[in-house]
Amino acid sequence: MLESLSSKLRASLEKLARLGVVDKDAVEELVRDIQRALLSADVDVELVLKLSEGIKNKALAEKLPAGLTRKEHVIRVVFEELTKILGEKKSAIEMKPKKILLAGLFGSGKTSTAAKLARFYQKRGLKPLLVACDTFRPAAFEQLQQLAAKIDVPFYGEKGEKNSSKILKNALKLKGDILIVDSSGRNALDKELINEIKSLSSILNPDERILVIPADIGQAAKQQASAFHEALDITDVIVTKLDATAKGGGALTACSETGAKVKFITLGETPEDMEIYNPEKFVGRLIGFPDLETLLEKARSVVDEKKAAKIIEGDFTLDDFYSQIEGMQKMGPLSGVLDMMGLGKLGTRVPGGLEVQEQKMKKWKYVLQSMTNDEKANPEIISPSRISRIARGSGTGESDVRELVSNYNKVKKLMKTISPAKLKRSGMGNMFRQFMK
Ligand SMILES: Nc1nc2c(ncn2[C@@H]2O[C@H](COP(=O)(O)OP(=O)(O)OP(=O)(O)O)[C@@H](O)[C@H]2O)c(=O)[nH]1
Ligand SMILES: [Mg+2]
After folding, report:
1. Which of 3, 65, 271, 355 has the fewest CB within 10 Å, making it most exposed?
2. Exposed, middle or buried: residue 278 (CB in 10 Å: 0-12, 13-18, 19+)?
3. Rounded to two decimals, what is the model's pTM?
4. pLDDT, position 31
C-alpha cells in the first residue's frame, strides 16, 4: 500500500527540490501532497491530519537552521514527525533473559518472526527456547519445529494438544534465556482469539508483547492494533514482509494506536532476514528518499544560528573550529574544506587518506582536551611553553599542537575577508565550501 505513498511523496519532494526556494505556498502544497499520498495509502484519516498539521506548523514556524535550505528543512521535519510515531532512535535491544509473546492475525508472520528472533539472540550468545502455542492451525507445530531445527534452537510443543495454556505452563518448566512464544492467528479478530492470547499473557507474564504487522496490512491496521493493544498492552511492533512490498504504512497506524515503537523489520522468509529498526533507513524507504541519512547527518552537523553569527564575525574558539571540521568531515566529499583545515592534502595524496585524517582528528581532539578553557577561547595566549605542556599532556607532538593553532588562525583570518552578507546568504556549510575551493 505504501508503494503509491512512496512514489507520490517522492514526486512532491522532487517538485520541492526543483523550486529551489521554498515559501509558505510551497510548504502547503507539499503538505497537501503528503496528505493525498497517505490517504490513498489507507493510513487512518485522523492520523494523516495530525501528521500533516505537525509538518506544516513546524516547517513554517521553525526558523530555518543555518546551512540548511528550506527544502532540506522540510524533509527533516517530515522525518521528525514520522519518527515521533515510528520510533526516533535505532531500537536498543536488551541482551538479557526475557520472555516474548508474539501476537497478530493469520499469516502476519508470527511463526517466522519467532524463528528470526531466536536466531537473533542465539547469534548474540543467548539461549532461546521456541514454544509452539498455536493450537489453531493444523501444521503450526511442524512449521515451528522445522524452523527451530534449522537454526538449532530448542523447541517445545505438544502435537495434538488443543489447550495452549497447558503447553505454555509445561514450557515454563524448561530452561532458556529467551522464551519466545508463537501464538494462534485468526482470519479476523474474535473473542476466542483475544481470550486465548490474554490467558497466554497472564501465564507467561511476558517482558515483550510484540504485535506482528505485515507491511501491506492497509486500513485494518487500526482496528487490529487497538484490539491487541487493549488485550495485551503491546510493547513493540515488528513489521514483516518489507521485502515484498517495500513499504510499512500499517506500521504508522499500529504505532500510533499502541504508542509502541518499531523494534525490528523483516525482509524475507529465512531466519536471517530480520533487521533492527533504523529510523533513517525506514523513513527513507517509506518516503522514497534514499539519501535521507546523508541529509539528516548534514542537518545535525550544521552549527546553530548564534554560533554561525559568531563565526562569521571571526569570533570562534578552537572548540568551534574542531566541531566545524568534525561536522564537515561527516558531510562527504569536502576536499576543499579539508584542504584548508590542513587535512585535505593528506587525505588526497596518501593511500588510505581517510584513515590518516581520522588519526589527525583524534590527535587534535587530545590536544584540545589538554588545553585550558582560556587557551581554547583565546588561542593567541598559547606560548611556546604552553605548547610543550599541551603536547606532553595530550601525548602528541609539539608540531601537532602548532599545526592545529596555525590552521585555526588561517581560517580565522580568511573569515574576515569575506563579506558577512555573502556568508549569511550561503549559510555556514556552503560558505566553508565556497571559499576553500
Ligand atoms: N517475503 C517474506 N515473506 C515472509 C516474511 N515474513 C513471513 N513471510 C511469509 O509469510 C507467510 C506467513 O508467515 P507465518 O510466519 O507463517 O505467519 P503467521 O503469522 O505465523 O501465520 P499463522 O500461523 O497462519 O497465523 C509464510 O509463507 C512466511 O514465509 C517476510 O519478511 N518476507
Ligand atoms: Mg504461525
Report:
1. 355
2. middle
3. 0.69
4. 78
